[in-house]
Write a structure and sequence with these properties.
This protein has two domains: about 15-195, SecY subunit domain (Preprotein translocase SecY subunit), CATH 1.10.3370; about 240-395, Preprotein translocase SecY subunit (Orthogonal Bundle). The protein has 19 helices and five strands. Helix 2 packs across helix 10 (about 185-195), helix 13 packs across helix 15 (about 310-330) and helix 15 runs antiparallel to helix 17 (about 355-380). About 70% of the residues lie in helices and about 5% in strands.
C-alpha cells in the first residue's frame, strides 16, 4: 500500500504507468481485429487443432492473435528474431562489432538495421502463412480463405501488407512504451500476450473442481505447488554469483592508500535468460509441425516420436537447452574483454593475476554457473509436459511462458522503483536548493 501511495504522489511515474497501460490496451484491442479475407471461425478451429506444434508456441507469444488470425497475427516475434540475430552478429561480424563500440550513434544504426530486418522477416512470414492458409482446409473441411482476392488485391498480397503493417505498429508501440512508459516495451507486449491466457487457465481449473473431475484438495495442492514454483523461479532469476573485485588507489598516499575500495562482478545464474528455451522449442516443433502436412510414413513416425509430452522430446529439449545456454553465453560474454577492462581501471580479483589468469578464472566461474543455470532452465521447461502427461492438467504451467512472465515482471518492478528513487532524490535536491537560497537571502 505504501508503494501504491508513493506512485500516486509521483506525477511523472503515474503518467508513465498510465501511458504504458493505454498502449497495452491498444495492443489487446488490435489482437481482436481480423485480417481481411479469412473465415475467422474456420481459422480458429484450425489453429486450435495445431496448438501442440510451433503454431501453438507462436500463438502463445502473440497473445492469441495467431489463432484468431488478426492484424497482429505475427505479433512482435519478427522483431524479437531480428534483434536476436543482430545481437549474435555483433559478436561475429567485425563491422557490426565496431559499430556497437561507437556508442549512441552505433546503437541507433544497429536499431535501424534491426527494423529493416523486422520488415523483411514479416514479409517472408506473411507470404508463407498466407500461402499456407490458401492450401489448407479446416478440420471440418471448410476453406480457411473466403476468396482468392480481397477487393482488387490478391489475398496473399493483402495478407502480407496487413501483417507487416501490424508488426511495424506493434514495434512502434513497444518503442513508445520504452521511451515514454515504464519497462521494456517489447517485453511488456509479450508479457501482456501471455498474461491474457491466465484467466482462461483459472476458469479451467475452477470448472474441473466444480464438475468433480479434480478433487478440491488436489486443486488446492496444485495452487500451492504453482506458488512454490513461481517463488523458486523468482529466486533463481535474481540469484547471482558475485566475483569479488578490488581497485587500487595509486593516486593516494598514507593510510588511505591501504584501504582499496572493493566491489564485485555479478554473474547471473540464468545468464542466457529465455533465449535457449525459445531456440530449442522452435527447432523441435518446426519439423514436427511440417510433418503434419506430409503423408510420408517415416515423417509421420518422426512426428509421433516428437510428442511434446514424450520422453524423446524432453531429452532432446534438455540437450538443446544446454547447448544454447553455453553457445549464447560464449557469444555475448567475453571474459578477455572483462579482464582487460578491470586491468585498465585498476581492478583485480584477490589472489588472481591480472590479464589472462583473470580471464581464465572468470571463464571457470561462468562455466560452473552455467551448469546450474542449465539444470534450472531444463527443470522449468519440462514441467508443463510432466504436469500434462502425468497429472492430466488441461493447461500449460511453467516453461518459457513462466520465465518471461517472471523476468519481465521483475525488470518492470525494478524500473518503477528506480523512477521512485530518482524522483525522491530530485525532491531532496530541490528542498536543499530552496534552503540554501533562504540562507543566502
Amino acid at each position: 500500500m505504501s508503494a501504491i501511495a508513493s506512485i500516486s504522489r509521483n506525477s511523472e511515474l503515474r503518467k508513465r504507468i498510465l501511458f504504458t497501460l493505454a498502449m497495452l490496451a491498444i495492443y489487446r484491442i488490435g489482437v481482436h481485429v481480423p485480417t481481411p479475407g479469412v473465415d475467422s471461425h474456420a481459422v480458429l478451429s484450425f489453429f486450435q487443432s495445431q496448438s501442440r506444434g510451433i503454431f501453438g508456441l507462436f500463438d502463445t507469444f502473440s497473445g492469441g492473435a495467431l489463432s484468431q488470425f488478426s492484424i497482429f497475427a505475427l505479433g512482435i516475434m519478427p522483431y524479437i528474431s531480428a534483434s536476436i540475430i543482430f545481437q549474435l552478429l555483433t559478436s561475429a561480424v567485425p563491422a557490426l562489432e565496431q559499430l556497437k563500440k561507437e556508442g549512441e550513434h552505433g546503437r541507433r544504426k544497429i536499431n535501424q538495421y534491426t527494423r529493416y530486418a523486422t520488415v523483411l522477416l514479416a514479409i517472408i512470414q506473411g507470404y508463407g502463412i498466407s500461402t499456407f492458409l490458401m492450401n489448407s482446409p479446416s478440420p471440418d473441411g471448410r476453406p480457411l480463405v473466403i476468396s482468392p482476392t480481397v477487393g482488387f488485391l490478391p489475398f496473399q498480397l493483402m495478407t502480407i501488407i496487413t501483417l507487416t503493417a501490424g508488426t511495424c505498429f506493434i514495434m512502434w508501440l513497444g518503442e513508445q512504451m520504452t521511451e515514454r512508459g515504464v519497462g521494456n516495451g517489447t517485453s511488456l507486449i509479450i508479457f501482456a500476450g501471455i498474461a491474457a491466457a491466465i484467466p482462461g487457465g483459472v476458469r479451467q481449473l475452477y470448472e474441473l473442481t466444480v464438475n468433480g473431475e479434480m478433487r478440491f484438495v488436489v486443486a488446492v495442492l496444485f495452487v500451492l505447488f504453482m506458488i512454490a514454483v513461481i517463488a523458486g523461479v523468482i529466486y533463481m532469476e535474481v540469484a547471482q554469483r558475485r566475483i569479488p573485485v578490488q581497485y587500487s588507489q595509486r593516486s593516494q598516499t598514507g593510510p588511505q592508500a591501504m584501504s582499496a575500495p572493493s566491489s564485485h562482478l555479478p554473474i547471473k545464474i540464468n545468464f542466457s535468460g529465455v533465449i535457449p528455451p525459445i531456440f530449442a522449442s522452435s527447432l523441435l516443433m518446426f519439423p514436427a509441425t511440417m510433418a503434419q502436412f506430409v503423408e510420408t510414413p517415416w515423417l509421420r513416425a518422426f512426428q509421433d516420436s516428437l510428442n511434446p509430452n514424450g520422453s524423446i522430446f524432453n531429452i532432446l529439449f534438455v540437450g538443446l537447452i544446454v547447448f544454447f545456454c553455453f553457445f549464447y553465453t560464449e557469444i555475448v560474454f567475453n571474459p578477455n574483454d572483462v579482464a582487460d577492462n578491470l586491468k585498465k581501471y585498476g581492478g583485480f580479483i584477490p589472489g588472481i593475476r591480472a590479464g589472462k589468469s583473470t580471464a581464465d578464472h572468470i571463464q571457470r566461474v561462468l562455466d560452473r554457473v552455467n551448469v546450474l543455470g542449465c539444470i534450472y532452465l531444463s527443470a522449468v521447461c519440462v514441467l508443463p509436459g510432466i504436469l500434462t502427461s502425468q497429472f492430466n492438467i488441461p493447461f500449460h504451467f511453467g516453461g518459457t511462458s513462466l520465465l518471461i512472465l517472471v523476468g519481465v515482471g521483475l525488470d518492470t518492478a525494478q524500473q518503477i522503483q528506480s523512477h521512485m528513487i530518482t524522483q525522491k532524490y530530485e525532491g531532496v535536491l530541490k528542498v536543499a536548493k530552496i534552503r540554501s537560497r533562504r540562507v543566502e537571502f
